[in-house]
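To the team - adenosine-5'-diphosphate complex, inputs and output below.
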Amino acid sequence: MPERTVAIALGGNAILQHRERGTAEEQFANVRKAARHIAQIVSSGYTVIVTHGNGPQVGSILLKNELMEETLPPMPLDICGAESQGMIGYMLQQSMQEALREAGVDRPVATVLTQTLVDSNDPAFENPEKPIGPFYDPVQAKRLQEEKGWRMVQIPGRGYRRVVPSPRPVALVEEQAIARLVSAGVIVIAAGGGGVPVVTDSRGVFRGVEGVVDKDHTAAILARIVGAEDLLILTDVSRVTLNYGRPDQQEISEMTVREARDHLAAGHFPPGSMGPKVEAAVRFIENGGRRATIASLEEATLALAGRVGTRITP
Ligand code: ADP
Ligand code: MG
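Output:
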């Protein structure tokens, strides 16, 4: 029987927990835990492709660049995004190799640095709304706005933050490379942080742009490229809920694409967090996927077996 393929999207919290400082040891410890869950899924007979978020990491890379500005030239956001893919890819790759060896599975693992093609006319470029990096006081915010042309938003009670466009992914530039590696039996880590957003110039050459793509949206594309039947989005809540955080909140164990769309329209899933996950699940199913599951990292194996988490089906 041919193996079933699952695309796994790891949330930022799988790599860096909220109260942590983000030392290498902390990040490695979290990644190793995630890798063991993934290895368990591999040893239960799935072909696996992995993607991950990069929010905290790209924020800290940016901040380092900024603090060192007088000494070393700061890198633009696309290069920072590529750095974060390398950094997290390295940790995941090494941890996966270790976890697979422990599980007695002999499979090669490789990270593919991925560029995500976006539309230069995406409305997100006119309306940047993804906050990244540190918080600033009003004076700093004004200076950065004037000197660097950054867009800043005020976050009540916490200060000002830079916002960048979060365009929708259209396609992955490394699509062929990823699909061939997967069909050759390689466990691929790809499109980290949603991939580095690029546009094509007038000669058809790719150019990085200042933006951050949502990893959940990219995961839906990645899953279809490799013909995955399952998309598993792992985060820090065990189920999607209606009326989230209210006394009448209600967990959803299963919903159809149609129900998911209705709940999205009714505002149950906010933009920067649960919204993209449910939208990605819907997109995946509409493009031929069989089942999408949103669950917590700790329950990954049970969720894939259909016993916990929230399933989105045709
Ligand atoms: P990730 O790093 O995994 O992408 P996010 O913070 O982007 O994590 O999204 C997960 C968060 O979404 C949860 O921690 C939860 O606080 C929030 N959330 C918002 N709305 C809902 C909802 N309707 N059901 C469940 N979680 C929700
Ligand atoms: Mg998220």
